[in-house]
Amino acid sequence: MKSIIMLPILLALLCGQSSAADKAATAAKPNIILILADDLGYECIGADGCTSYKTPVLDQLAATGVRFDACNVQPLCTPTRVQIMTGIYNVRNYTDFGHMDPKCVTFANLLKQAGYATCMAGKWQLGTDPALPRTFGFDEHCLWQHLRAAKDAPSRYMNPGLEINGVIKDFTNKEYGPDIVSDYALDFIRRKKGQPFFLYYTMMLTHGPFQTTPDSPDYGKKGGGKNSARPDGINQHFADMVAYADKLTGKLLAKLDELGLRDNTLVIFLGDNGTQRGMLTLMGERKFYGGKGLPTDAGMHVPLIVSWPGKAAPGKVSRDLVDSTDFLPTVCEAAGVPVPAELKIDGRSFLPQVRGEKGRPRDWYYSWYGPQDVIIAEFAATRDFKLSRTGDFYDLRNDIEEEHPLKAATLTGEAAAAAKLLQGALDRCKNTRPAAMAKPFAGPKKRGRNHVDDANKTDANNP
């Protein structure tokens, strides 16, 4: 199965499809903003049940829009971002951590070809070639970890080092990186208000190291960057960072209101993977520990909130499965942009569910997770059950941490039916990885904590 199309060929095909009618319709196209928070699990948003952090803006966004309670992404940053941007499972196009194949076609490529102004602002981590943002369809960009990869990248927070449209810019007067990126994103919106725009806002918060924000009383003070535990065991600086991510979301919404763009703008907010492993969050009396890097609920279940005044069903909570391949077809459908069949994407649009319609809900989602030199996990799952390529089966209703694997031969009833469905999903995805990208499958004895730790170290916290 050929999974990647040469970009110039695809764009030539799209150019041939354009018409005067397409151009005339450009002015009616909605603006689209996709906000991707870094290391923010499902448990961190008040609307999803969190009681440790304050997220009033996101809570209100959920109350007036649509909240999805079963959005699952990949357990780590780059794998998720590749899936989100291409609509294709990692098994078919993922190369290595911190890199995306330049031949990949992204949602920005498709929207740009349809007349959208495109911008990416925030965390990059997809390769250090200066040409890559434009190759992937972004007219302009304000990025962290673009020209300087993880081991060389300066701080993303106080006194940050960024790359703005390919020019390195370091700040040394206690500026806050998320503020600089936010200001750039808001300025892009202001400058492009007269045409449809697509903003991919890859917010740098709330990834470690957990430090003070400009709203913290000790911001910029000596020793202010050290972790601070509250009496309830919650990390106060992480709480500050969650609150600041919420605040920056509010600034963006306020700018849309100020410019009269809010009703014609689709806003999507989600996390890129679970919260840092071991991070305690309270959901009422329930203690939840982050599982970033783990191919489990704690590492892959993230918040998803969608707002589109007048079009999104207000206050709706959808239990439908969503995974990270579904965002490309969703934003393309909202923009009225067809997804070329040649791409053979794996995702399906959840825009009908946003509008309150039934749509085509997923029966399962699939994950091939190999962030570095080995495959850590491969499985298919429903809301309640999960089947690994190794044959391990989990009843997630009673074993959400996956401590008690079952064997398919022992199952009966609903579980047996689920195992049959999920085996079919795994069979469908078998042998789809291009030979040039093949990696060894480590097997159940070599997978697990050591490789997960290695993956987390690759996405290292920068001081």
Provide a descriptive summary of the structure in words.
- The chain has two domains: 7-363, Alkaline Phosphatase, subunit A; 367-458, no CATH class.
- 29% of the residues lie in helices and 19% in strands.
- It is built from 14 helices and 18 strands.
- α8 (177-191) runs parallel beside α9 (236-258).
- The termini are far apart.
- The model is unreliable at 1-6 and 443-447 (pLDDT under 50).
CATH superfamily of the largest domain: Alkaline Phosphatase, subunit A
Summed up, the domain count is: 2
Percent of residues in helices comes to 25-40%
Global morphology: globular
Strand content: 15-25%
Per the CATH scheme, the topology name of the largest domain is Alkaline Phosphatase, subunit A
Distance between the termini: 43 Å
Radius of gyration: 21 Å
User: How many helices does DSSP assign?
Assistant: 14
Short descriptors:
disordered N terminus; five-stranded antiparallel sheet; eleven-stranded mixed sheet; 463 residues; single chain; alpha/beta; Alkaline Phosphatase, subunit A; globular; 29% helix
What order do the helices and strands come in, and which of them pair?
Elements: H1 7-17, H2 20-25, E1 31-37, H3 56-64, E2 66-72, H4 77-86, H5 90-93, H6 107-113, E3 117-123, H7 132-135, E4 140-144, E5 161-164, E6 167-170, H8 177-191, E7 197-202, H9 236-258, E8 265-271, E9 280-283, E10 286-289, H10 297-300, E11 301-307, E12 316-318, E13 322-323, H11 327-335, H12 351-354, E14 365-369, E15 377-381, E16 385-388, E17 392-395, E18 406-407, H13 413-429, H14 449-458
Parallel strand pairs: 1-7, 1-8, 2-12, 2-13, 3-4, 3-7
Antiparallel strand pairs: 2-11, 4-5, 5-6, 8-11, 9-10, 14-15, 15-16, 16-17, 17-18
